[in-house]
């Protein structure tokens, strides 16, 4: 059971909690309350072990292949969170005895996990427990843990094992070679692991302090080692009302770290670094480290994003904060060789790989709110160019064909080949996305265009951006297929965003995005030719720019762009979609679990039905509306409405990426009630009360979508070809919305209500923007009354 109203006073709408312990539903709180800082992610499994737990610690970028036939994945590194506790010799577990006042909660404001309860042992001894944990945003290598135990009734003997456990795996797949283990001074423990194939060293060091009634215990622990494991056992006697307090601090270092200050890498250096950092942290102790972490959250995140919502449903504000929390902990802001995984760092799902989820659903938040992180994420894609070129060559194309799934940049395409069971054949289904879901190359080009328009970061374009846009256009030139009969270029045999349609011809989303990608290349080429030919010259070493330009020009105008049907303005999602059989989708539209259609049909059968997994055409309308090619796209309100209602009825939202786009479109066509209800559904993908939503990990794109539906949907913010446009459509449940965006290098704060609008330009550099079709200028503060301008 998840609860949203536990936070009181200045913690109101800052706390997500679980108020009932259910040993069969552990995944939910483990994932949605996971802790992290972009460098690492620690799933919030309980200290004491349970059968169905998933205990994960991931360090971003440490990809490894577990075997010959596997794709690379983010390995689950050694665990430091497990504590095996015994009370008078009996194992402590919430599955025995009686538990009262159970509460597990994530304090979003301070990014701290807390668990507390009163437990009566099977022998009738009553103890009070409290656990706390954080993964520091101040020192990215640091994990802090704390345990308090108080015996309320009887003298008890408590003993616990605590250490570093590398007997971990990814659902059985073992990624590491067994490394050295060591205990220093009966206190600090260290374990080294090395990934089998990628040969990355991971060094974990932990230290403990034990207090009874605030006095440090002098009891020496027992020292233990086993295969892949090293730990200490403490034995403590507690009298009634004695209070035991245990602090455990851990540092995590890997040979992939980009902040190592020694010139030549050796494992010994890394071990020393990990230990010396640990000892410095130990001098400060849990509380001071926690204070620094808390301040970092306050300064870097909450004070910087300044988000406020006054809604009749307080949950909405909590959901937005939850979204900012997760966007922060999933993003490797520290290292531009790393991307964001589809599940963040919260679980094994999708193996830590990055998809188009980043560019289309997550990146917009950073582009508008924290451009430095957006730049880092796009630079990651630049580093993936070599892999993209290799993929193009291997498939007989030129240019850069971005991998559908990406890991460490040189790995290139890492999509697995086989997936879930086919209910008809009983065999695993072949996964086609790595071969034919190709729109990602154009999605990345779009994201760079959006980043440049919002930030005006010319440096980034000169070094990275132009090259990606030109070389993806080169790929498309080689990918287009001439259709003699139609005298047009077609793109056959693809998967569009709607993955329920495989091997389709002319997926409208793909064709239009390709058209945009090539037009963009032409546009930038022509501007550079006039203004900065030296940038073009530099690129000549990579490919023949003049030839490329003439090919784009020759082909772009002949790309087939599916048009709305004359009778009802519906744009065909692909060549056959509108001719497919229609079935009653009510059962699946009302489903409690996702993808129930697979219980009745296999992929081949789904392919032959007018049913859509996720936003496809609608996403295209939304994206291209922001570009300079909008004239080439049928974007009238009538077309938007026709397509919205046609495809919304056919869309099962079986991918969590879908709801936020439909919500934004619903706002755009003025159906604010529907927009709000789709927004609420999007927030519930992870945060909702259902306990089985997030076992494999949180849904990073959906979490980015919560912010998008708010700022692009309800606040109606758009950057249309470099111009800032705002058309607010606040839902009736919201009284007021405040947020900050960075517009061309300058932070601006917007505050909206149903009748008023105010904008504050932080650096007092004059900006121009359009609000409800009126143009304004502002270099300080401007307050506008809607009734006045609309009347
Ligand atoms: C997703 C694909 C993905 C595949 C393998 C499927 O569930 O829909 O996009 O490539 O899993 O990771
Ligand atoms: C969606 C894809 C998405 C992937 C990873 C799939 O279910 O259909 O669009 O990229 O999940 O989140």
UniProtKB/TrEMBL annotation:
- GO molecular function term, any single one: hydrolase activity, hydrolyzing O-glycosyl compounds
Q: Which family does it belong to?
A: Belongs to the glycosyl hydrolase 65 family.
What keyword terms does UniProt attach to this protein? Glycosyltransferase, Hydrolase, Transferase
Indicate what this protein is called per its UniProt record. Glycoside hydrolase family 65 protein
Query: Which is a GO BP term held by this UniProt record?
Result: carbohydrate metabolic process
- Note the InterPro entries from the entry: 6-hairpin_glycosidase_sf, 6hp_glycosidase-like_sf, Gal_mutarotase_sf_dom, GH65_N, Glyco_hydro_65_C, Glyco_hydro_65_M, Glyco_hydro_65_N, Malt_Pase/Glycosyl_Hdrlase
| Source organism of this protein record | Psychrobacillus psychrodurans
**Locate the Glycoside hydrolase family 65 central catalytic domain: which residues?**
321-708
Identify the Pfam families for this entry. Glyco_hydro_65C (PF03633), Glyco_hydro_65m (PF03632), Glyco_hydro_65N (PF03636)
Indicate which residues the UniProt annotation says bind substrate.
356-357, 613-614
